């Protein structure tokens, strides 16, 4: 199988959204932040589509596809490094408002789709605290937000191709990378193969109903971690 990694396009979005939904169908964070009895797959797809379009303009969003085939086999969504002293540009300001208006329109049309808003903000607070503690490089970090590979395409090196498309760039620039995993096993071991090390736990506790997320950091040119 000859696979290529390329920037996400509008035509790729349905396949990318489907791949992400499959991967996160039983994800611990999703199970915690969404009420499954009222979860809307359509609303979730609309939300992911909005995020994909934002990422095409502002992030590093990649898809993996077999040569000569348009089926999306994997998706990687990275956020670009942002300096600690960064002042938002007009572009940032416009894109922020554009994203906000799109999300408001989605919520008006679909409703919350089972999203537990209280838990969402519990997570955002825990994330902000973790990043404040872990992010010590004022130049910022390449932030791996999502990495998924379809089950039928796993163990074929597709994840490595998508990962190295950005980690090689980070290494060339001497930049660190960062991610948050919703599972310790097996995810932390998998990410360790690419040089990521555990940095901090994110405790998200809603009156006793809690989950943990695991922040990991990769140093430039990091070697694989021992299992």
- Read across the widest sheet, the strand sequence of neighbours is 1-2-3-4-5-7-6
Uncertain spans: none
How many strands in all?
7
Instruction: Write the element-wise H/E pattern from the N-terminal end onward.
Output: EHHHEEHHEHEHEE
Structural class: alpha+beta
Q: Report the total helices.
A: 7
Mean pLDDT: 95
What is the C-alpha radius of gyration, as a whole number of Å?
A: 17 Å
In percent terms, what proportion of residues is strand? 15-25%
- N- to C-terminal separation? 28 Å
Helix content: 40-55%
**Overall geometry:** globular
The biggest sheet amounts to: 7 strands, mixed
Walk me through the structure:
There is one protein chain. The protein has seven helices and seven strands. The protein has helices at 13-23, 28-33, 41-58, 90-110, 117-134, 158-173, 187-192, and strands spanning 3-7, 60-66, 74-79, 141-149, 176-181, 196-206, 209-218. Strands 1-2-3-4-5-7-6 form a seven-stranded mixed sheet, sandwiched between helices. The chain is globular and about 45 Å long. The two termini are 28 Å apart.
